[in-house]
Every structure is written in C-alpha cells, then in structure tokens.
Amino acid sequence: MQKLFSKFKDTGPDISRVDTIIGPDSMFQGVLFLKNTVCVEGNFKGRIESKNAVIIGKSGMVEGDITANYIIVNGDVTGTISAYQQFELGATGKVIGNVEAKAIVIEKGGVLQGFCRMLTSSDEETQNSRMQLRQLNSLDTSPEHLEAGEMVDCEKET
Question: Residue 149: enclosing H or E segment and its boundaries?
C-alpha cells in the first residue's frame, strides 16, 4: 500500500496515516463526512466528503460522488470526483464519471470515461463553501424526517 502514497509525499498533507478503513468484505451505504483520510477497499454507495484524502483501493468499488483535497483511485468509481488539490488514477483504476481537480495524474492502464475540468483558485473557494453548506444542511436528518431505509440526499431541495 506504500505505493499509493508516494506521489503526494512532498506536495500535500501527510496521507500515510489512514484513520478510516472500509474493508474488503464491507458494504457501506450513505453519506460519509470526514476530517481525515479514508481508504475504501470494500463497496460504498452514496457520497464521501473528506477535508484530507480519499483512497479507493484495488478491491474498492464506489457508486457515488467523492469530494476531497486529494483523491487516489485504484479500484472502480462510478460518479463525480472533485479533488481540490490532486486526483490520481492508478493503473488498476477505473472511473465512469466526470472529474474536476487542480491537478490530474493518470497512470498508464487507468481508465477514465468522462470529462475532466481543471480547477482554478476561485473554483476551489467556491467548492469549499459548497462543501461546508452541504455538511450543515445534512445535520437536519433526524429520524422523524426519514422513512426506514431512506437514503438522505443533502442536495435535495425541500
């Protein structure tokens, strides 16, 4: 797993410490907000937002949107990826969806089926404001507002 972190060694935060792991035999559905780094080796359906890094391992499968400063994909992702700093698509990675990032690295063998958009500094400020607003809006998810098994969509207008 050390190779996953080598490209960011001098350019970003220390992502060699993974605080949250969704293991290979795990399934998670919902919205995940994190301050630190998460590594997905299992199945995830929903939305992931991290102020640090999101790593999708070789066995990881994500169906949903990912937003973070640094995003590394070595597994499969279907959804929109927003990396405020850098997005890396490894040789074993596959993304079906659009990518927006300040910097993009695609290794030989990596598959991207979608559009790429390079972010500017003003885009990054706007994105950070939107991320904070979504986090605040998602706090009103008390059980009386939800039906059993209902997935919360924080961007849904009420």
Answer: none
Output the pTM of the full model: 0.73
CA-to-CA distance for 110 and 127, rounded, in angstroms? Answer: 26
Strand partners, 77: 62, 95
What is the distance between the alpha carbons of residues 155 and 137, in angstroms, rounded to a whole number?
Answer: 8
Under 8 Å between Cβ of 40 and 75: yes
Residue 129 sits at φ, ψ, to 5 deg, of -65, -40
77-86 long-range contacts, Cβ below 8 Å, gap at least 24? Answer: 82/127, 84/119, 84/124, 84/127, 84/128, 85/11, 85/12, 86/7, 86/8, 86/11, 86/12
- For the stretch 87-117, pLDDT in tens is 999 999 999 999 999 999 999 999 999 999 9
The number of beta carbons lying within 10 Å of the beta carbon of residue 78 is: 16
